[in-house]
């Protein structure tokens, strides 16, 4: 089972990164993608992936929260990083109209520029969309024929939005958000609509600790070693076996990100 969304560069992992990776391996995780959210963290993510070659890979990109930092220098940094064998996707990039930490115009500009970069480099993209579906789809659509693959990570949208994303050919990343008994119920009902070859799972650690783990972990920090819980719950809600789902999401991640 492959975790496609681990924010391993987070300061929440500063004191025990190696142990976090080891605990994930011991829990049966077969690989992970370390998320880059700005130029500096994309560099850190690449180095961490290099240290764990064959188990960790990374993305290089600028999250919509950081879109106001976008510059030609940052574009060159990402381009340089993308040459490294561990860097397998451009992102995370996209639009976030929920928190609006960067202006909408800046977000769209940085998103479009990263899609252009991915197309130029022939790399898949790791996408973020929060409360911005219409603009997200409008910016993304013209680039899709030029991209070798795309995943909308941490999907939390509506049924219409899911159908639109699937219609555009996107793969869909599901996090432990779906385990939340307050806000995950709508998403839970959508799980069976995602074709088996388009589904990916992720912890988004250290964020989004699944709320239905029993016994409850003592810390609120999420870890990739909790991926088996998400696999188990998603398999139950899809009416599938957890073992088959674990194998399937590993295969899907390796295919999408073209891993050895
Ligand atoms: Zn995200």
UniProtKB/TrEMBL annotation:
Pfam families: TatD_DNase (PF01026). GO terms for cellular component: cytoplasm. A divalent metal cation binds at residues 92, 128, 153. A divalent metal cation 1 binds at residues 92, 204. Its main location: cytoplasm. It comes from the Bacteria. GO terms for molecular function: 3'-5'-RNA exonuclease activity; magnesium ion binding; single-stranded DNA 3'-5' DNA exonuclease activity. Keywords: Cytoplasm, Exonuclease, Hydrolase, Magnesium, Metal-binding, Nuclease. Its EC number is 3.1.11.-, 3.1.13.-. Its cofactor is Mg(2+). It is found in: Cytoplasm. InterPro entries: DNase_TatD-rel_CS, Exonuc_TatD, Metal_Hydrolase, TatD-like, TatD-type_Hydrolase. A divalent metal cation 2 binds at residues 128, 153. The keyword Oxidoreductase does not apply. Monomer. Belongs to the metallo-dependent hydrolases superfamily. TatD-type hydrolase family. TatD subfamily. NCBIfam families: PRK10425.1. 3'-5' exonuclease that prefers single-stranded DNA and RNA. May play a role in the H(2)O(2)-induced DNA damage repair. PANTHER family: DEOXYRIBONUCLEASE TATDN1 (PTHR10060:SF15), TATD FAMILY DEOXYRIBONUCLEASE (PTHR10060). HAMAP family: TatD_exonuclease. This is 3'-5' ssDNA/RNA exonuclease TatD. The lineage of its organism: Bacteria, Pseudomonadati, Pseudomonadota, Gammaproteobacteria, Enterobacterales.
């Amino acid at each position: 089972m492959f975790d496609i969304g681990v924010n391993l560069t987070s300061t929440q992992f500063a004191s025990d990164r190696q142990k976090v990776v080891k605990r994930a391996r011991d829990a049966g995780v077969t690989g992970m993608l370390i998320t880059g959210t700005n130029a500096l963290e994309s560099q850190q993510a690449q180095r961490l992936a290099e240290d764990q070659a064959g188990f960790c890979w990374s993305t290089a990109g600028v999250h919509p929260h950081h879109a106001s930092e976008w510059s030609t220098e940052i574009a060159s940094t990402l381009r340089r990083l993308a040459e490294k064998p561990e860097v397998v996707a451009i992102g995370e990039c996209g639009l976030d109209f929920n928190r609006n930490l960067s202006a909408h115009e800046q977000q769209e500009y940085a998103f479009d520029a990263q899609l252009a970069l991915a197309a130029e480099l022939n790399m898949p993209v790791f996408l973020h969309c929060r409360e911005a579906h219409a603009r997200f789809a409008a910016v993304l659509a013209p680039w899709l024929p030029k991209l070798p693959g795309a995943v909308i990570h941490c999907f939390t949208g509506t049924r219409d939005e899911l159908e639109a994303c699937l219609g555009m050919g996107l793969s869909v990343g599901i996090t432990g958000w779906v385990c939340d008994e307050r806000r995950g119920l709508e998403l839970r009902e959508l799980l069976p609509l995602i074709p088996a070859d388009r589904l990916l799972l992720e912890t988004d650690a250290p964020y989004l600790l699944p709320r239905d783990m029993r016994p409850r972990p003592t810390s609120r920090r999420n870890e990739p070693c909790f991926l088996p819980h998400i696999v188990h719950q998603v398999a139950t809600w899809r009416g599938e076996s957890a073992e088959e789902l674990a194998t399937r999401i590993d295969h899907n991640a390796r295919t999408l990100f073209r891993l050895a």
